[in-house]
């Protein structure tokens, strides 16, 4: 029971940390997905220069650890006179991450649209941009939904890395409380539960969507 | 190239962390995957809850919990131990999920055929189901390994002297523009390290495909 009483006392401070975590995750998703769509189009284009640039951005975003990108933004860029607040650096790093991962999922989704759809559109005399935005994109995005939800969960968990550059998010709040009272076991357990309470149901919803979509195809 | 040699000092530790945690995961995931596909509901539910909970908590929380939270008598984890156990437990959960997917993807007829031939359940599982499941999941396992390689960088937050930690140390000593170099180098090294894993996985995959279909 003492654990529960302590947890209740810590909860307000933890909740403000959780708010920051959710804010960073939200920003990285809202900005990252449109960028991801742009990247997926760049990677699929015939123009070599644009394709190479898109591929480089995607491969660095996926291939380098999020922590390294985070440090690059927070400690690296100020050396060129471009300085960010820690929370801005965290958002930028996770936006890059989200865009890179989501671009691959969207590209796969767009590619999964059957060729017949394209042929039917051209038989109907639809213009190219109409074919893409009205026919291909809606169907492609539909099949990308579960994967994109997975990326969103990954981003939420990734916000915990912002601890490393002293953003006052959930992990940092937990660490501050822990270093005051030296009850690390309780506080990090509580932090883990806070993350799990959001991630686990989100995963279950994702699996539910995956199963539903598998049924329709 | 001071920056490069500084970063490379952490390379052995990065590889040690990755491979140790991977070894724990590869073995530990077997019983959990069996639990996930058990016909008994309580076992299935407990395994599912374990896997989803471990995956639902960020790695950095597991590392801090093990490093700072665990004290049994006089025993405390050192940073490397905490990192290996933490990354290992997370690997168990992720790989168990991958194994389960593979076992489920083996056609039902295979199990039924083994049954019809009078094979015992153990033989059917280990000689019929597991080899086929392994072929199906080997690319996913390779993908997970490259993910684990990147996640090992999180150990730098509990002062394990791997590549990212060394990069930071170098950057702190060089407050000039040179200080940005290690971060770029370490990013390139991570990408370079994932390439051979992807290559070996593709080779392995195509060889096993030949073994099945040729």
Distinctive features:
heterodimer, A: 217 residues, mainly alpha, MetI-like fold, 8 helices, B: 214 residues, two-stranded antiparallel sheet, 80% helix, flat
Describe this structure in words.
The complex is a heterodimer of chains A (217) and B (214). Chain A has 217 residues and is mainly alpha-helical. Chain A has eight helices and no strands. Chain A has a single domain, classed as MetI-like (MetI-like fold). Chain B is an all-alpha fold. Chain B has one domain: Orthogonal Bundle (MetI-like fold). In chain B, helix 3 packs across helix 5 and helix 4 crosses helix 5. Chain B is flat and about 70 Å long. The mean pLDDT of chain B is 91.
What is the share of helical residues of chain A?
over 70%
Radius of gyration of chain B: 21 Å
How are helices and strands ordered from N to C of chain B?
Answer: HHHHEEHHHHH
Strand-residue fraction of chain B?
under 5%
Q: Domain count of chain B, please report it.
A: 1
First-to-last CA distance of chain B: 50 Å
The CATH architecture classification of chain A is: Orthogonal Bundle
Radius of gyration of chain A: 21 Å
Q: Please identify which CATH superfamily of chain A we are dealing with.
A: MetI-like
Major protein interface: A-B, 40 and 39 residues
Unreliable segments of chain B (pLDDT under 50, ≥5 consecutive)? none
Sum this structure up briefly.
The complex is a heterodimer of chains A (217) and B (214). Chain A is an all-alpha fold and 217 residues long.
SSE diagram, text form:
The complex is a heterodimer of chains A (217) and B (214).
Chain A (H helix, E strand, L loop, with lengths): L1 H43 L3 H16 L2 H11 L9 H26 L3 H9 L4 H31 L11 H12 L2 H33 L1
Chain B lengths: L1 H7 L2 H26 L4 H16 L2 H11 L1 E2 L2 E2 L2 H27 L2 H9 L4 H31 L11 H11 L7 H33 L1
Antiparallel strand pairs in B: 1-2
Helix pairs in contact in B: 1-8, 1-9, 2-3, 2-5, 2-7, 3-5, 4-5, 5-7, 6-7, 7-9, 8-9
